[in-house]
Amino acid sequence: MNKLSRRATTAAALTVLALGGTVAATAPASAATTRAAAASYNGACGTGYKVIDSTPVGNSGKVFLTWNESTGKNCAVTIRNTTGAKIYMSVELNALVGHETTPVRDAGEYKSYAGPVYVEARGHCIEWYGVIGNASGGDSGHCG
């Protein structure tokens, strides 16, 4: 804390004391306590799946994209930053195969995550998308 901040804090405390109040000591909030917890991958896709990308879903969480080299499948899961009351959530995964594509989706009222969903994607590009309440996010790419 710099000298000016210390003086202002001291002056404010003296004013409170002069008016008959009490002053409680408080520590400044750290950056970690003021920032929302970030979602982390929870392993929902299973053994052999590695996270290859993630996309924010507003400020509510992330949709994670994983790949399993041995099976040639992608998997996606939408995860909230913090578990809470049930809320509408969804995850969608789509292998872009020519002009005809059929996304795989899981949607419902969940406390912590939606999914996992899987697509056979070896040799194709993919799209992934997630929703948590009114927030949404998605991306495409990872062709191969």
UniProtKB/TrEMBL annotation:
Keywords: Signal
Stated name of the protein: Spore-associated protein A
Leader sequence residues: 1-31
